[in-house]
Design a protein that fits this description.
The complex is a heterodimer of chains A (366) and B (119).
Chain A: E1 11-16, E2 28-34, E3 37-44, H1 64-69, H2 76-90, H3 97-125, H4 129-150, E4 159-160, E5 163-164, H5 170-196, H6 198-204, H7 212-217, H8 223-226, H9 257-281, E6 296-305, E7 308-317, E8 322-328, H10 330-342, H11 350-355, H12 361-365
Antiparallel strand pairs in A: 1-2, 2-3, 4-5, 6-7, 7-8
Chain B: H1 2-15, E1 37-40, H2 50-54, E2 60-63, E3 68-71, H3 81-85, E4 91-94, E5 107-110
Antiparallel strand pairs in B: 1-4, 2-3, 3-5
Classes of the chains: A alpha+beta (366), B alpha+beta (119).
């Protein structure tokens, strides 16, 4: 007769993804369960690898801007910006001041729409359908402003090496700020629910814990690391016009899903504020300068996407094609912390925890 | 309190007009700068092939000898690179999207009126 100490609990492996109702994009996780408790998670990625980095052999460095923008749909805008920042640093291009502020303005609009999109998906992951719909209704207004000013709803395509493709007239900029203030007011109707609602708190508080030490050790980035109490944001490096704006880093100390939710909700308002500041301080002048020659040298640009810090490495040898192009995306960095956060959780909480890294698998697999 | 907030939000919208449109009867208006599809004023084209060289998606093909300009609408990513490169400004970005296609085809524009305008 076996005793309780001798008997090992039976383990079951449940495949999660790549097709799963809660996942907007494909990632596969093998969940090793003991009863309903997750004891181990084995990830497998690579379902949508497209080999975009290798395209530098065929496309010249100017054309690669379009490729970089299409690495991902949601953070497309900052992908294009990151690539341009990296090339501009290699080529010592001084971007006009107005272009720097315009880049901040559009980057922050991108952050707002990405965070609201995520908030909607997150609400959907724990079955709060009406909150999902209202989040996306508000996001649509941001997309309208983006389409009007850049020409694209999701692929903004505003960035080019040496500046921006488009400008916003000062009069229109002021009226956009007025519209944004109305949208900001409307955002409170959803973020208050995320913050205080009983059922939201019940599904997110104390779930998916990622301690401060683990966040550092496993290299978490973006809202994931800031929700574990670490003040880390690439915007503080002062690229574009961020160095001229006044803002404080948002951190939470909860280390759980609710803390990550709160970081993103608070960042929505911070992004509004940064967009107002950029519009207010935007100087007059040209928005682009002509760039001649080919890049020689290497540079690693660090920018903050809605999901966290992205690293763009470019290396040129004086020809029109880059020698090396490498992108380290925030979702890729956040997969090891996600596995840690999943350990010990209950099976029904898995979708909620997976969503808190804001998984963007298009980015991660490029 | 938050329960009241979401209840108010949901019931408020139940009494208003829907936030969505009754497509296809009501269509969404695009903006003047919306990147919809590429149009060409073929009469002004000099067939310099700059647009073909600048196209990152290889969607444009220019035939100097036959004086034709072709575009594969399904390859085109509406990035505006050809419009920015065109020295004669004969390319423009229309703000309406290309209609859905039943068959994948390449649209060809010819400067010579004797040649077929489209195939």
């Amino acid at each position: 007769m076996s005793t309780a100490t001798e008997t090992k609990p039976k383990r079951t492996i449940i495949p999660f993804g790549p097709q799963h109702p809660v996942l907007p994009e494909p990632i596969h996780l093998d969940l090793v369960l003991e009863d309903e408790k997750v004891v181990e998670v084995i990830p497998s990625i690579g379902f949508i690898h497209r080999g975009l980095e290798k395209l530098v052999e065929k496309k010249d460095f100017q054309e690669m801007t379009y490729v970089a923008e299409r690495i991902c749909g949601i953070c497309s805008c900052i992908h294009g910006h990151s690539y341009c920042e990296a090339i501009e640093n290699v080529m010592n291009v001084q971007v006009p001041e107005r272009a720097k502020y315009l880049r901040v303005f559009w980057d922050e609009l991108s952050r707002i729409h990405s965070h609201i999109l995520w908030a909607g998906l997150f609400a959907d992951s724990f079955g709060f359908e009406s909150l999902f719909m209202h989040s996306w209704r508000i996001r649509e207004k941001i997309l309208d402003i983006v389409e009007e000013t850049t020409g694209g709803r999701v692929i903004f395509g505003y960035c080019k090496i040496g500046g921006t493709r488009r400008d916003i007239a000062n009069g229109r900029l002021k009226s956009i700020v007025t519209e944004l203030k109305a949208i900001e007011k409307e955002c409170h109707s959803i973020t208050d629910v995320f913050e205080k609602d009983y059922s939201v708190k019940k599904r997110t508080k104390g779930i998916g814990m990622l301690s401060k030490d683990d966040a550092v050790k496993l290299g978490a980035v973006g809202p994931m690391v800031r929700a574990s109490g670490i003040a880390s944001d690439a915007r503080k490096l002062g690229y574009a016009a961020y160095g001229n704006l006044t803002w404080e880093l948002i951190t939470e100390s909860g280390c759980d899903c609710h803390a990550r939710l709160m970081v993103r909700c608070r960042e929505i308002y911070q992004a509004f504020d940064l967009a107002y500041q950029a519009a207010d301080k935007m100087p007059d002048g040209p928005v682009e300068i002509k760039v001649t020659g080919n890049p020689t040298g290497e540079f690693a640009a660090r920018l903050e996407q809605p999901r966290g810090e992205v690293i763009y490495y470019v290396k040129g040898n004086g020809t029109k094609n880059l020698v090396r192009f490498r992108v380290r995306t925030p979702t890729f960095a956040n997969i090891p912390p996600l596995l840690k956060a999943l350990e010990g959780c209950e099976l029904p909480d898995v979708p909620v925890i997976v969503l808190t890294i804001d998984p963007c698998i298009s980015c991660a697999e490029r | 309190m938050s329960l009241m907030k979401i209840a108010g939000l949901v019931s408020g919208w139940a009494l208003r007009k829907p936030a969505t449109r009754l497509y296809p009867f009501v269509k969404r208006e695009t903006y003047p700068h919306t990147r919809g599809h590429i149009e060409i004023d073929i009469g002004k084209c000099t067939f310099c092939t700059l647009c073909e060289k600048k196209c990152p998606a290889d969607a444009i093909a220019v035939d100097r000898a036959a004086k034709t300009w072709s575009i594969d609408r399904l390859r085109c990513i509406s990035c505006n690179a050809c419009v920015e490169a065109c020295p004669r400004k004969c390319l423009s970005m229309a703000n309406t999207y290309s209609p859905a296609m039943l068959q994948h085809g390449i649209q060809t524009f010819a400067q010579n009126p004797a040649a077929p305008a489209e195939k």
